[in-house]
Specification:
By secondary structure, the chain is α+β, with helices and mostly antiparallel strands. The chain has a single domain, classed as Sandwich (Jelly Rolls). The chain is built from five helices and 13 strands. The protein has a seven-stranded antiparallel β-sheet, with helices on one face. It has a four-stranded antiparallel β-sheet with strand order 7-12-9-10, with no helix packed on it. A two-stranded antiparallel ribbon has the order 4-5. The longest helix has 15 residues.
């Protein structure tokens, strides 16, 4: 049976201890506890397989020679600063793994969950869920001391929303504005199983991870340490 058939797609309701979906900025929504522990463990198992694929987990090197502290494996398209390619020309030249069908379906459910809050400003965005077709995922692993500076996701030729899933240790996620890396911004704690979607007016907002909190992996998530972050994107490339 394929991975697509095995993924436990039926979603539980967010933990009642959480406040439910929270609008951080227009088009940017945090949904706590969206993935249950079974789903998290299943994705962690897939992550182990992806890292043993044709292109290994690697830390990208930015122009100027600075190596990122986050390590990444890509699906569908290979991201390298600041472009997408089908082959990992900055690693070993091999084609990246295909973008899985189950992840496309999960992405659509994620957009629907984020934008079906009843907020009038999200009605137009909610309609995107049916047609949301991500074709690339950057799967980042944050080990001890890893962080990510404020940046925009703007290497895509599409303004479709970005879907972000967190598994493992809690991180401080800094979500800013579209004009500058500095304030105003909002700091959000993303815990294991959390969903964050940003599109519409917030699609090109600056965002980053100042720190990950060691020792915060929940029992049963599939990780003993570190944080996995999956970001799904629509590249707009053919």
């Amino acid at each position: 049976m394929s991975d697509d058939a095995l993924f436990p797609l039926a979603l539980v309701q967010p933990d009642t201890n959480h406040e439910g979906p929270r609008v951080i900025a227009p088009g940017a929504v945090h949904v706590p506890g969206w993935l249950n522990l079974e789903q998290q463990r299943w994705i962690v198992q897939r992550f182990g397989e992806w890292t043993q694929g044709p292109v290994p987990l690697r830390a990208a090197t930015l122009p100027g020679g600075h190596q990122m502290s986050v390590r990444t494996v890509c699906l569908g398209w290979h991201w390298q600063p600041y472009r997408y390619t089908r082959e990992a020309t900055d690693v070993n030249g091999r084609p990246v793994l295909e973008f899985p069908e189950w992840m496309l379906r999960l992405g659509r459910k994620a957009v629907s969950a984020a934008y079906s809050t009843g907020a009038e400003s999200h009605q137009a965005l909610a309609e995107l869920a049916v047609h949301y077709t991500p074709d690339a995922a950057l799967v980042n692993f944050y080990d001890r001391g890893a962080a990510m500076g404020m940046h925009q996701d703007k290497d895509e030729r599409s303004d479709a929303p970005v879907v972000s899933l967190s598994i493992g240790e809690t991180c401080l996620f800094r979500f800013g504005n579209t004009q500058t890396r500095t304030k105003p911004y909002t700091d959000v704690e993303l815990r294991s199983g959390d969903l964050f979607v940003f599109g519409g007016p917030s699609r090109f907002a600056y965002h980053g991870i100042p720190k990950v909190l060691p020792g915060t992996c929940p029992d049963g998530c599939g990780l003993s340490h570190g944080r996995i972050n999956i970001t799904m994107r629509v590249t707009g490339l053919s």
